[in-house]
Amino acid sequence: MKLCHAMFFIALYSGIAISGNAGGESTDKNGEKYSPKILAETPPMGWSSWNYYGDRINEKIIIDTIDNMVSSGLRDAGYIYVNIDDGWQKYKGSRADHPLVFDEKKFPRGIKYLADYAHAKGMKLGIYSGPGNTTCAGYTGSQGNEKADAKMFASWGVDHLKYDSCCSHQQASQKVLKQVFGDMSQALQASGRPVVFHACHCGWQNIWQWGNSVGANQWRIGQDISDDFNYPGNREGYYFDVLDMIDRGVGLEQYSGKGHWNDYDMLIIGLHGHSKELVGTGASDTEYRTHFSMWSILSSPLLIGASLDNLTKEDLDTLKNKEIIALNQDALGLQAKRYVSNGDLQIFAKPLADGSWAVALLNRSGQTAHMTLNFHQDLDLPWTKVMVRDLWQHKDLGTFGDSYQAEVQSHEAKMLVIRSGW
């Protein structure tokens, strides 16, 4: 199927009109049309320090992580960001009392050295701050100093900024949040360096409805994830498990797209219940694989939250599955919709740039189930014959007529790509 036919299905899928200017054309000073490069045109992929290390970070950990991502093949699989979270700052306490500088004991050669090191390895570096006087871990924030801080980050060669308002502005109004995130967004744009901007506000105040308008490239849709697949309720009345986060994103697909992504939080693959910062008792290999599958088809940023030293072969096999990653990095940039919800048996799907469709058959129950995908009834596809490929088996399963049936294990997501068989 040609791309134009795929665009027709997108219009049906999303309920929006497709215009001739969908690529975001602009006009330069001479009146010539051009298409500026979109930051985070696909969901950012990489690693973040907080979920395993907390503020116990230093230069050696970051360098070792960069080297490990190269040697393990993670960089070549698409994980290019190494993001330093809270705790790189020298001072704890109010910005009114302290400057924002790096801790020279943790980072003796500075942040620019790390950015240069990452760039030399074909990777990118991220940093953390927040709009308050202090950050979530109590270090100096950026309040009132957005322009100076953005200029400093740019001078260091930083490529990604996580800007965390959850602790300083938890009760703030939408108007205030738009202002504080907009101030930093404008400051980053004025810095002259392209910096991917992560507006972190735990999904409060419906940030998905306005995050794009203030220049955010990604925003959290929910509270912090726990290292659990299906914990009863919310741990400590706050944390979302994998299934909670999936439910949180249902219906939000219209707000996600090229350059502005619904962020389902960091990946918990590889933590195995051993994080010193994140609650949870861990998940099985099947559950971690389902977690990765769903984050991918839902077009969430893919940021590893574990120590790379602790990844098992199964963890790496999950994280490096190129066919699953391709769903996340697909050129159309669509988030999958939930098409079927039959109790614990659910089907998510989305069109892909080559005219095929990605499908997840998700079994949330505690027992094996037989699931049926009806191509016409469930997805309203006009195809007479449908070719089916299993992305975890890396195997073409054949051509089918009206439907495809599969045995799906408890807590498994059977991941498929389907295309017209004619």
Task: Describe the secondary structure blueprint for this structure.
Elements: H1 3-14, E1 26-27, E2 33-34, E3 45-48, H2 50-53, H3 59-71, H4 74-77, E4 81-83, H5 110-120, E5 124-129, H6 146-156, E6 160-164, H7 174-190, E7 196-200, H8 207-210, E8 218-220, H9 242-249, E9 261-263, H10 285-297, E10 302-304, H11 313-319, H12 322-328, E11 337-342, E12 345-351, E13 357-363, E14 369-374, H13 375-379, E15 386-390, E16 395-400, E17 403-408, E18 413-420
Describe this structure in words.
The chain is α/β, with parallel strands linked by helices. The protein is built from 13 helices and 18 strands. The chain has helices at 3-14, 50-53, 59-71, 74-77, 110-120, 146-156, 174-190, 207-210, 242-249, 285-297, 313-319, 322-328, 375-379, and strands spanning 26-27, 33-34, 45-48, 81-83, 124-129, 160-164, 196-200, 218-220, 261-263, 302-304, 337-342, 345-351, 357-363, 369-374, 386-390, 395-400, 403-408, 413-420. The chain has an eight-stranded parallel beta sheet with strand order 9-8-7-6-5-4-3-10. The chain has a six-stranded antiparallel beta sheet with strand order 11-12-13-18-15-16. α9 (242-249) links the parallel β8 (218-220) and β9 (261-263). α3 (59-71) packs parallel to α5 (110-120), α6 (146-156) crosses α7 (174-190) and α10 (285-297) packs parallel to α11. The longest helix is centred in the middle third of the chain and has 17 residues, at 174-190. The protein is globular, with a radius of gyration of 21 Å.
